Amino acid sequence: METRIVSNVDQKLDPEVRSRLLDVAREHFFRYGFSRVTMDEVAEDAGVSKKTYYRYFPSKEALVRAAFTDFRHEERDAVGAILDAPGVNYSTKLIGMLASMAKQLAIVTPAALADLRRGAPSLWREIEEFRRQMIQEGLGARLREGMREGCIRRDLESFELVLVIYVQTLERVLTPELLERLGLTYGQAFSTLIKVTMGGLLTDKGRAELGLSTKRRGRRGTAVTRTGVQDARVKRRRAR
């Protein structure tokens, strides 16, 4: 077991103060970026002196990195809890994971990332790598699992393209500014995103697990939902 050596300075630090600093850092840096937020602002909003701030974090980059590390652990724990939930079918877990990932990815605004890239390029690369791993590895693994279970279509010509499309949609569509302009809640926007992106990926089995309507071909080649089969039969009888 790894043993962490705690210094005398570490022992004097208050976890609540550190938590307040991290909360303020996430609120400010993840929304406005790196250069537009000062350490004075963070210290003031956290209710501590600048001297106290430096006892916990020697630099602005150290604070942002610590905030991002906590954010990364929270997201992995959230996704893990969804995937490990007992008695839940594959499709429901997939949608739950996508909802969690989308919400977390939307926390760091595109403007903040662009500013971070200019002001702290090494930290920006770490964040981009985490975002890439979340999508390419996390979502990619779940889609491959869905193919094995018969919930995701096997005839996709470009599996990687599906991942790219989803990443770009999350990063550029579900932004606070757009949701505010359209008058939509996050839940409403995500519901629409799922219908558009997942509808073409899921098989009939996958859609059935989510309670979505599945389609089959009618006698005349017209697509009808299984839940509307009886209505279609009635219409045909009336037309005779």
Strand order of the largest sheet: 1-2
Mean pLDDT: 75
| CATH fold annotation of one domain | Tetracycline Repressor, domain 2
| Subunit organisation of the chains | single chain
**N to C succession of SSEs:** HHHHHHHHHHHHEEH
CATH architecture of one domain: Orthogonal Bundle
Q: Beta-sheet strand percentage?
A: under 5%
Please estimate the helix content. over 70%
Describe the main β-sheet briefly: 2 strands, antiparallel
Low-confidence stretches: 1-11, 216-235
Judged by helices, strands and strand pairing, the structural class is: mainly alpha
CATH class of one domain: Mainly Alpha
Give the end-to-end Cα distance, rounded to a whole number of Å: 79 Å
Shape estimate = elongated
Radius of gyration, whole Å: 24 Å
Q: How many beta-strand segments?
A: 2
Q: List the total number of helices.
A: 13
Describe this structure as you would to a colleague.
- The chain has a domain at 69-202: Tetracycline Repressor, domain 2.
- The chain has 13 helices and two strands.
- The longest helix is centred in the middle third of the chain and has 28 residues, at 121-148.
- It has a two-stranded antiparallel ribbon.
- Helix content is 70%, strand content 2%.
- With 240 residues, it is an all-alpha fold.
- The model is unreliable at 1-11 and 216-235 (pLDDT under 50).
